[in-house]
Design a protein that fits this description.
Largest sheet of chain B: 5 strands, mixed
Strand order of the largest sheet of chain C: 6-7-8-3-9-10
Distance between the termini of chain C: 38 Å
CATH class of the largest domain in chain C: Alpha Beta
Keywords (chains A, D): Cell membrane, Membrane, Transmembrane, Transmembrane helix, Transport
Largest sheet of chain C: 6 strands, mixed
Number of helices of chain B: 12
Order of helices and strands of chain C: EEEHEEEHHHEHEHEEHH
CATH superfamily of the largest domain in chain C: P-loop containing nucleotide triphosphate hydrolases
Strand content of chain C: 15-25%
Largest interface: A-D, 77 and 77 residues
Bound molecules: adenosine-5'-triphosphate, magnesium ion
Distance between the termini of chain B: 23 Å
CATH topology of the largest domain in chain C: Rossmann fold
Subcellular location (chains A, D): Cell membrane
Pfam families (chains A, D): BPD_transp_1
Helix content of chain B: 25-40%
Oligomer: heteropentamer
Chains: A mainly alpha (about 270), B alpha/beta (about 325), C alpha/beta (about 270)
Radius of gyration of chain B: 19 Å
Family (chains A, D): Belongs to the binding-protein-dependent transport system permease family.
Number of strands of chain C: 10
Strand content of chain B: 15-25%
Number of domains of chain C: 2
Number of helices of chain C: 8
Organism (chains A, D): Lentzea xinjiangensis
Chain lengths: ~270, ~325, ~270, ~270, ~270
């Protein structure tokens, strides 16, 4: 028991020390670059000032962070569910696939900020337009990945399913979908980062709260410490959501080859009980 | 300056001017000046670039990505306080075009009428920061209105659609556009008409250009003043000159309207009758005081911190 | 049209009725005729083995019967009904194990039950029975990549037997098993067949196995596969393994099949 | 021969008529919606006016389209190459993977439009900042997909490669990379649409040319026909680039299951020579 | 420590020297001991067959020799060198064909040459020779999914033979082949072995095959696999197929192995 939890602990350290070291290195570079005047303060503030501000204003930042996080999560969940549904429809029917693709592409490629007036007029200034923008941004990677995943299922498995007569729904639930999960997760990971951006962009369009508002205002005031604080917090939200997904992937797909680690180095456990 | 032998034929030196925004009626004199050869005559081959907000223009000017900028004085003041090495070389819009804009059908004629109204603003811009002072000046509080931050393009749509009652903007910018799009008359409450005036758009450059090539700056100021003076005399021709210079413009009617509105903003009482772009230190001081009072800057410095008087010909 | 004469007229009473079927695969590179005018009728409860050279079209033939492939010409009927699409009234063991890599051995077997909506408790009991029978006990919860090749094949076998299908199509189901396990499986399969009256079509490379288990052995030629001969195995219904092997009919049948296949001598 | 080309022709019709019909239907809806005044002209122009404008100003639009297309393609290519290289490095070394991930995530999550002023200050108003934004936007999906793809190679194939002693480079070139291609293409497809958005967003920040310039200016003037013309052209650029990738995928991966079509319905060709 | 005595001292002259090797797999669910203190020496140019029940650890043993798995205890040496990682001085036929689905049959075979940087022209010639030998002619350009199970296996065989390896590890390489093809392959393999002096370790489920081909047959027990007995096959070097089968030594050896495996009777 002791050794197991010891192992686990060592595993956590193992996995975190490198990113932590990197972060520290980046902080040092940032510090040096600003202290030496290589980059001027009106462009990039010093880390000290930025973190000072973050501590001073943490409750202000926290309030806005919460708003953005809720929008992001909501947008991501909707995009995930919708994206999978659309992908399923596209895989089921060539007609749907060939008709839906152009619309999806269209919706994907349009710069969301350019249709801001439409959002403002149709959806107002509340919660909804931000969630909509987040959904629009996050939707496409989910669809593309899921379609790819659903289509790369082994054909023999599908033939087998057909002889079991489970029908399309059961075949989907028990075979196609689980087989597509590794692809789906790759799509979801991209999607969650885009959902964050979407929520922030949605806030750019029209909002009195959220990190987008903080960033925009800081930009207007040339308040670079606040701008960087906003950017850092935004990134942290994105990174945390991403890591949550990564964790979910590890829990749900222990079987997936990409989690099994490198091939050739597989060593059977030394010793035993 | 200007002695750079590599700088094109005819001795004209290629110079970039970055505007505060995409070209609209207010910028007509620059195009007019180019068309009339005014800049050429001063040895300047002017290249006009669109900008994306005064703040970015000031920063880009300070960083040397453009030789000259055309931007709002409040943005300049904020930037200077933050350490951006840029300086004004003459404010041309000495009366602020800042105004509350609305359809006349809203029956707003005094600041008090704004009570309970929703106001579309853009987070972080100067108007939004001076608006509370405007309200206070007129015996109102911020809580009397509801502020809504919206993307610049969304502001107009919000007012036309009725999502908000009024918007904060430059009288020389949005007003004529929404009037045309909605087919309804637009009314203005100009800050300047209700006891709050400060400098708006003007010409600026970086400290390094000022230091290295004061001659070029002098030429630029002189040429620009001349261009504005000429344009003032022939507003139609000036507005006309924008046609073709920039493909994507508001309709000619809107451009003219915008420019005519601009022309009403060129002077304070102190500079009446002088050439456009000629400022007085007193006016500068008053603007700086206003900026400090409204929180655009935290500490007021001497006008010389923001304004290089030496390059401006006294007119 | 020409093949009509080859079709027996018992189609309506046959469990499997293949009549004049040809299959052509067309790829970018070439066209392959896998099966050429093959006709075969399998009576209800009959056990038919299919042997033939590698690549001749045996797997193709089974997929035809299951409705996983459509013939280029000719027709196939199963349980009196024309085969037009995948058929669910069968149990199919593929040549490859085709297991879901994220399901344990037991849950791979139970997939059959889940897909058919069988009673879970009954299915679980049946699964345990089959796991016991195939010697997989102790590995119920292992994932496919933790199983040996032969174990994977046995899981696939259990899966095909779980729902006691009326028709069993098996494509070389014991190929990855050692001799001993294979014999045990043969005996078990024979028992299951005797007890349930299932109709079985078995593709195998083992001549002994084909004869031991079947009522008839169909010998196919090289590609394009044509039925070379159908051998009636005159062995008694209940077959003790060693006793059967010792019978002269057994020896005669295996020798004949070896000759047909052109084998130099009797190794399998 | 005749039948083959006939078949091919029919195939093209088969594949295009549905999207075309959908486009037509959308146009009709758009027309009706604007003609009936359901949506006002200051928000959505009529299709007639939009297309009229597109024809009138085609050379103007074409010039800007070309600029944006070049930026997009350049950004996409850089993002693709860099993304694959980074993914390879990440798959090769756990150290690189765990250190690079946070940086990548960080770079991905930050709203580009918020840091775009930095690009303008550092890189000016030219070509470069747009390409940089396009690269930043398109980079992440490529990395994620490639990593997932490279990791899902069959372990037995890698073992086999090890016994052939080809070394990591050959194993990569001949086994891992081809096996990852289906994943990679899914990533590239998302990336190319994001590269378009990236280029346009880059142009929003500071530019005198490109579709972002056209769109933002139209937005400022409430010139909705021009706005929609810009959006349509942007989308067309995105869709065309996407289709090019799709074509490349079909040519390069004829073996991939997702291209082999549905399993159970595989019919051997009727008839023959 | 205890197993040291079991190790023969000829490790330095052996091509393969397995000494006191155990392999334990640990998964979340359970710990499986696949191999328990197995020792085996294979002399240069020797042909050793390995037989044993399904799931006993035969594949595991071959992977140990190839350096694809590290033993939990004990050590393995190949060609006089300790095995510490994957070894390239071998040819390996896996139990599954493991073909690259985007490469044609021929290009799958040539993968071996490309990975090793062999002379392309010579490799191509050799590939054609092997394709001819294994009866794959006409399917050189077919993709794996267009090949039958047996054909895929033959492609894998060709791939392993392409570079004329000094040591050949084969994991049930003929399992998916019909009796006739299997015999032909046996004869071919025997010829190749005779001519090249390759050292071969062959895992097979066919007792006849194991005896026909090998100098020695290693019989493993059920899991955890222990070496039950090593049978010296006293057959002459050059072996005519039918003549060999008819020899009394052959019959004796197969019967003995069947007994060891606990088979009820002589079916394989
Ligand atoms: N999808 C396909 N496309 C093209 N050709 C195919 C396809 N499937 C099978 N074939 C060809 O059809 C022939 C018969 O294949 P099949 O798998 O039925 O052989 P088989 O008798 O089962 O052989 P084995 O005993 O080796 O498994 C082979 O020549 C094969 O190449
Ligand atoms: N990766 C693994 N993780 C856990 N257990 C494993 C793993 N690989 C093999 N085993 C176990 O090791 C034992 C031996 O497996 P191996 O594949 O060597 O058997 P085998 O003798 O080749 O059997 P077969 O003849 O069926 O192929 C089996 O019980 C199997 O479950
Ligand atoms: Mg087959
Ligand atoms: Mg094995």
């Amino acid at each position: 028991m002791d050794t197991v939890s010891g192992d686990r602990w060592r595993g956590v350290v193992e996995r975190t020390w490198r990113p932590a070291a990197l972060m520290a290195a980046l902080l040092v570079v940032w510090h040096l670059v600003t202290v030496t005047g290589l980059v001027e303060a009106y462009l990039v503030p010093s880390p000290a000032r930025t973190f000072e501000l973050m501590i001073d204003k943490w409750s202000y930042l926290w309030g806005h962070t919460w708003v953005t996080t809720v929008e992001t999560v909501l947008g991501f969940v909707i995009a995930g569910v919708l994206g999978v549904l659309v992908a399923v429809a596209m895989v089921c029917s060539r007609t749907i696939e060939s008709t839906a693709y152009p619309i999806l592409l269209f919706a994907q490629v349009i710069p969301k900020i350019a249709i801001a007036p439409l959002f403002v007029v149709w959806l107002g200034f509340g919660f909804e337009p931000k969630v909509v923008v987040a959904v629009l941004m996050a939707f496409f990677p989910v669809v593309i990945s899921t379609v790819t995943g659903l289509k790369s299922v082994d054909t023999e498995m599908l033939e087998l399913a057909a002889t079991m007569g489970g029908g399309p729904v059961k075949t989907f639930v028990k075979i196609r979908f689980p087989a597509a999960l590794p692809h789906l997760f790759a799509g979801l990971k991209v999607a969650v980062t885009l959902a964050v951006t979407g929520a922030v962009v949605g806030e750019f369009v029209g909002s009195n709260e959220g990190l987008g508002y903080v960033i925009l205002q800081a930009n207007g005031n040339m308040d670079t410490p606040m701008l960087f604080a906003g950017l850092i917090v935004t990134s942290v939200v994105g990174v945390l959501l991403f890591l949550l997904l990564d964790l979910a992937e590890q829990l749900m797909l222990p079987w997936h080859a990409s989690r099994r680690g490198a091939a050739v180095t597989t060593l059977p456990a030394k010793g035993g009980s | 300056g200007g002695g750079d032998p590599a700088a094109g034929g005819g001795g004209a030196r290629e110079v970039t001017l970055t505007l505060n925004w995409y070209p609209y009626g207010e910028h007509a004199p620059f195009y007019y000046g180019v068309k009339q050869g005014i800049y050429d005559r001063h040895g300047i081959k002017l290249k006009i670039q669109a900008g994306q907000g005064s703040g970015k223009t000031v920063t880009a000017t300070g960083a040397g990505q453009t030789d000259f900028g055309w931007a709002d004085t409040s943005a300049l003041a904020t930037a200077v306080e933050q350490g951006v090495p840029a300086k004004s070389i003459g404010v041309f819009l000495q009366t602020t075009p800042a105004s509350v804009q609305f359809f006349t059908e809203k029956n707003i004629s005094r600041p008090e009428d704004l009570k309970g109204k929703s106001v579309a603003t853009t987070a972080g811009d100067a108007l939004t920061k001076t608006f509370p002072a405007f309200l206070k000046q007129n015996g109102m509080r911020e809580s009397d209105v509801s502020i809504q931050n919206i993307d610049p393009a969304g502001k107009m749509a919000a007012v036309i659609s009725g999502r908000t009652d009024v918007l904060l903007g430059f009288a020389s910018d949005q007003g004529p556009t929404i009037e045309e799009k909605a087919g309804k008359d637009v009314g203005y409450l100009r800050f300047a008409d209700f006891g709050l005036n400060y400098f708006s758009n003007g010409l600026l450059t970086s400290k390094s250009v000022l230091q290295k090539d004061p001659e070029l700056v002098r030429k630029m100021v002189a040429a620009t003043q001349e261009a504005w003076a000429q344009a003032e005399k022939a507003p139609e021709a000036a507005a006309e000159s924008m046609k073709g210079a920039a493909e994507q413009l508001p309709s000619p009617a809107v451009v003219l309207e915008q420019f005519k509105t601009t022309l009403t903003l060129l002077h304070t009482d102190a500079t009446k009758g002088k050439a456009p772009g000629v400022n007085t230190a007193e006016d500068w001081r008053r603007t700086i005081e206003t900026f400090q009072r409204t929180g655009i800057i935290t500490e007021a410095s001497d006008p010389s911190a923001y304004w290089e008087e030496s390059v401006a010909p006294k007119g | 049209m020409k093949t009509a004469g080859m079709t027996t007229t018992s189609a309506s009473t046959s469990t499997v009725a293949i009549s004049g079927v040809s299959v052509r695969f067309r790829s970018k590179r070439a066209e392959t005729t896998a099966i050429e005018r093959v006709s075969l009728d399998v009576a209800p409860g009959e056990f038919v083995s299919i042997v033939g050279p590698s690549g001749c079209g045996k797997s193709t033939l089974l997929k035809l019967v299951a409705g996983l492939l459509a013939p280029s010409s000719g027709s196939v009927a199963l349980l009196g009904e024309q085969v037009r699409g995948p058929r669910r009234d069968i149990g199919f063991v593929f040549q490859r194990a085709a297991l879901l890599e994220w399901r344990s051995a037991r849950r791979n077997i139970l997939l059959q039950a889940e897909m058919r909506g069988m009673n879970p408790a009954a299915a679980a009991e049946r699964a345990d029975e089959l796991i016991e029978m195939t010697g997989l006990s102790g590995f119920e919860n292992a994932l496919p990549h933790e199983l040996s090749g032969g174990m994977q094949q046995r899981v696939a076998l259990c899966r095909a037997l779980l729902h006691r299908p009326r028709v069993l199509l098996m494509d070389e189901p014991f190929g990855a098993l050692d001799a001993l396990t294979r014999e045990q499986m043969n005996v078990e399969l024979h028992r299951v067949w005797r007890e349930t009256g299932t109709t079985v079509l078995l593709v195998t490379h083992s001549i002994a196995e084909s004869v031991y288990l079947a009522n008839r052995v169909v010998v196919l030629t090289r590609r394009p596969a044509v039925v070379q001969e159908v051998i009636e195995v005159g062995l008694p219904g209940t077959r003790d393994y060693s006793a059967t092997m010792a019978r002269p009919e057994f020896a005669a049948a295996t020798a004949h099949i070896r000759d047909l296949l052109g084998a130099v001598t009797g190794h399998d």
